[in-house]
Each structure stands twice: as structure tokens, then as C-alpha cells.
Amino acid sequence: MAAREDERVMISERIAPGALPRVLDSLDMSIIFLAIVLFIVQASVIQPAGPAAYTYWILGFLLFLIPGALVTAQLGQMFPQEGSLYVWTQKALGPFWGFFAGFCAWWPGVLVMVATSDLVVTLWQFIRPGSLSKTWEQMLVILAVLWFSAALSSIRLRVTQTYANFVVFFYGGAIFLIGLAGVLWLAGGNSSANSFSGVHNWVPHGSNWTFFGLVILALLGIEVPLNMGVEIVHLKAIKRYLFWGSLVTMVAYLWATFGNMVTIPLKGNNSTTGVVSAVQAGFWHAHWFAVIVALVLMWFFISNTVVYNYSFSRLLFVSGLERRMPAAVGRVHEKTKVPVNAVLVQTVLASIFAIVTFGPWGSSSNFPSQVYLIFQAAVTVIWCLSMVLLFADIFLVKRAFPQKFEEVRVSRTELLFLSGIVGIVASAIGALVTFKTPWNPDLFSNASWRWWLAGVTAISVLAAVVIYAISEYTHRREVPSPTPSPAS
Fold first, then answer.
1. Which of 61, 67, 165, 217 is the Cys-Cys partner for 423 at CB 3.0 to 4.6 Å?
2. Helix, strand or coil for residue 232?
3. What is the distance between the alpha carbons of residues 226 and 221, in angstroms, rounded to a whole number?
4. Mean of the per-residue pLDDT values for the chain?
5. Pair 100, 129: CB distance under 8 Å
6. How far apart are CA 387 and CA 426, in angstroms?
């Protein structure tokens, strides 16, 4: 029993608090939450579900976001360490599952950095139709955004976070205008672009359950701010950011979905720029005004890539401290007190993915779109897998640390356990329905979509197992052999 407890004690628990400064308050943590979770373009993505979009949102809030916030609050209060899910799962299940959970939480962040950079390209194409038509041009923009994020993520966190707070303030203004566009559209005597009548239109059915997977994707990242657990000024920030971040996220998604659905007919909706088109329609077809909102959204997604870079680098940093990854990624820059090597490593990985996907060799085919969609669907599946472990942790840490569980309990034990069960089921369904139907049926058949998605997911999971096995082998080789006692 003592051996099991010893293997769950982490090197990072001792080193990280002294290496990283405490600079993040409740507002900072809430901003990180919103930057990670609130992808307002998802209001356009889910619009084809019709009125059932609201049903999917509500299901996502009740079955995933709120349970996730409760469980994360409990785990975060119990173990406010650097690395969030990595730490919690190691405490619950030991080093292998801790690393596995941390890897499954980290790898999607690398891929999403490319997605946020690509959104910058798409928004610019709305502003300047016909521009960046060649994939190599898109690749250069994506690489520029990625390395801008690396540069900002490598300076002192307090400076970078203040910048992010400033940007998200304008992002909130843009989201308000998206919903207001719907109000102005109806106030101007226009009828809704999409019908809200008919009870059957509000009920999820058939292949539309794919939208539940997209809602789960839109809500992933609840625990990410706690990747920087030792950089929080006060533990009160944990419950505050989860409450306010969740509340703002729910209101914002419903508000923007309303603006998009009221103003833009389904056949004219673009899954990325529909929210900007809604602003143009609602504000008396003023393209110049929509361009301003699009520029704000572009600015946000450039800055959002920065937030992804520095927050996910902490998982890689902890892996370095635990000697599951090369020790160099577990080092902090002497002047900035930031894990710069971890930032650089994941930026290089994201850049390789961007080059492979958007390089000039794919310019005359569907290759870039196919690779992009498969990898983003894999993000959903792998991240949901990590969330299954997060929700399961609530039961396991209660058993392993009953006294600590009670000392910081954020709600009734029955509610926390119910949240764990509901969250596991919702995460599993979110992963499974992602396999069900291709996100773009014109590019994939059902069979090819499932095979490719299963292949990418399996390779990613296998990579985690192989890296752990190599680290274990290296550890065993480094353990010195006992010196034999001299003969008497």
C-alpha cells in the first residue's frame, strides 16, 4: 500500500511551485476558460440542426459542461498542482494512467492550434473574397500565427495574460453584436430566416446526433486553466472561474446561435463565417461593419492560439519534470520563468502538421480539407477519452483520499458522483457519434471516415503507450545497481 502511494507522488509537485510564479487571479482564469472553450463559430457549425440546435446545446450544458465544472472544481481543490488531469489521474490510478490522461489532454491542444490559425485564414477570406486561394499561402499565414503564439507564450506570463484579457474583452463585444443582429433583424420587420415551428424540429433524431458530438467539441477544455494550477494566486479562483466561465459560455453560445439562425437561411450559412454574415444582415447589410467584427474575431483567434500554446505547454512541462518526455521540456527559462522549451516543441509539432496539411503538394486536390477534418475529429475523440478519465477520477480519488475529499468538498457527494457518471456517458457518446457520420459527406464515405478516424486515434493512443514504455525502460537503466558489500 505504501509503495502504491509513493508511486503517485509526483516530482512536479515539489519542483513546479518553486519554479513558476503565482500570477493568475480569478479574472485571468475566467479569460483562459473563455479563450479555450468559447469558439463562437460553433454557433454557425450547429445551425444546420435547425431548432434542435438549442436542444443539443442544452443537453451539452446539462450532461457535460455543468458536471465537468463540478468535478473539475473538486479535483482542482484537492490537487491544485501544475498539470491538472495528468496529476489527478496519477493520484487516482498511478503513473501510467496519469501520463496517458495527460497525453490525451495535451495532443489535441497541438492540433487545435492549427485549427485556430486556419480560422484566421477563413475570416480573412470573408474580408477579402478570393484571397489566400492557394494552400501554400494559407500555410504561410498559419505558420505566422503559430510562431507569433510561440513568441508571446515565451515572455512573462503576467504580460501575456494581460494582453489576452484585453483581447477577450473585444471578443465579448463581437459576440454581443452577433446576437444583437438577430434582434435588429426581427425589429426591422423581417421574418426569421429559419422556422422555429413544429415540435419535431426541436427533437434530435437520426444522423443529427452528430451535432451532439460537435456540441461536446465546443465545450471541451473545462480543465485546461488548471494546467497552470501552481500559478494561481488564490484557490478561490478555481470555483470562481468555473462558475463565471461556464455561465458566460452558455449564454454566449445560445445568444450567437439565435443571431445566426434568425438572419441567415440554412442554404446561405457558412460553418465558419455564418456568424459574421449574421452581423452584416442584421446591421442593415453593412458589409463594412461586418468586416470590423470579422477583424475582431481574427484578432481573437490569433490571440486564442497564444492561450492554447502557453496553457497546453504546461502539460508537456510536467511530462518533462516527470521524465516521461525529455528533461529539457521540463526546464523554465531563467528570466521569464516560463517553460519555453515546451512551448517551442509543441509549436514545431503544430508547424509540421500545418506544412503536411497545407503544403503546395495538396493544392490541386481535396487533401488539405480531408486531413484537416480527420485530425479535428480525432481531437474530439481523443479529448473525450481524456474527459472519461477526468470524470472517473472523482470516484477514485474519493476512495484513495477520503479525508482530503471531504475537506474541500464543493457539493454533495451524491451530486459529484452523479456528475461523474453523467459526464462519462456524455463523453463516450460524444466520441462515438463523431464516428457515425462524416463531417463533410462530399469528401468521405461513411466507411472511409470511420477507418481514417479510427486509424489516427489508434496511432495517437499507441504513441502515448510507446512514449511511456520508453520512459520506463530509461528509468530502469538509470537506476544504479546495488554495490556488493566488501568481503569480511
1. 67
2. strand
3. 10
4. 91
5. no
6. 10
Specify whether the CB–CB gap between 7 and 95 falls below 8 A.
yes
What does the domain layout of the chain look like in residue ranges? 2-473
Q: Counting beta carbons within 10 angstroms of the beta carbon of residue 211, is it exposed (0 to 12), middle (13 to 18) or buried (19 or more)?
A: buried
Phi and psi for 230 in degrees, rounded to 5? Answer: -80, -5
Unique residue bearing C-alpha cell 434530435: 204
Residue 444 in grid coordinates = 468521405
pTM of the model: 0.93
Q: Residue 231 has which C-alpha cell? A: 500559478
In DSSP notation, 65-110 reads: IHHHHHHHHHHHHH---BTTHHHHHHHHH-HHHHHHHHHHHHHHHH
Check: CB of residue 386 under 8 Å from CB of residue 439.
no
Contacts of 332 (CB under 8 A, 6+ apart): 19, 20, 317, 338, 339, 340
Beta bridge pairs of residue 82: 228
Rounded distance between C-alpha atoms, residue 126 and residue 275, angstroms: 11
Residues 115-154 have pLDDT tens digits of 999 999 999 999 999 888 888 899 999 999 999 999 999 9
Q: Which fold has domain 2-473?
A: Amino acid/polyamine transporter I (1.20.1740)
C-alpha angle 137-139-140 in degrees, rounded to nearest 5 = 70
394-415 per-position pLDDT tens digit: 999 999 999 999 999 999 999 9
Amino acid at 483: T
